[in-house]
């Protein structure tokens, strides 16, 4: 993810106007009409063809299918802020493996993640503002390599997963498009 303080990599008058006019969703719906007109994937199985699940950050610059060369129907993709392996990600991975036949797990975090700019103090800020402390951890981090290692451990030690022998973690470089694998040791 990126924070609101981040400067967009690109912006043009058309998209600014669309955002200002509140018509972003309309644009997406129009795009869907074109997508459906050319749709040819009606025969896909709900079980991912490559039997792999990807857990990735929600960052807008991380096009998971493009980065990994994935086609529709080939993988599960689970995303959140930071690509954190939360209880809910374990829930999805458990269903992915036990009900939909996946085996491998690929974690993709990235350079320049907005989670590096947050701290757990964010929860206190929220509590001050709204009068309620969130139950969830912020899952902020300072060292992306260490964060991937911690995430690898959470997947590998989960008692709910059937397959933890093929779990690999990577940092995606938003400046080059390249993945760098993280040694779990
Ligand atoms: Zn991120």
Automatic annotation (TrEMBL):
<protein>
    <recommendedName>
        <fullName>carbonic anhydrase</fullName>
        <ecNumber>4.2.1.1</ecNumber>
    </recommendedName>
</protein>
<dbReference type="Pfam" id="PF00484">
    <property type="entry name" value="Pro_CA"/>
</dbReference>
<comment type="function">
    <text>Catalyzes the reversible hydration of carbon dioxide to form bicarbonate.</text>
</comment>
<keyword id="KW-0479">Metal-binding</keyword>
<comment type="similarity">
    <text>Belongs to the beta-class carbonic anhydrase family.</text>
</comment>
<dbReference type="InterPro" id="IPR036874">
    <property type="entry name" value="Carbonic_anhydrase_sf"/>
</dbReference>
<keyword id="KW-0862">Zinc</keyword>
<dbReference type="InterPro" id="IPR001765">
    <property type="entry name" value="Carbonic_anhydrase"/>
</dbReference>
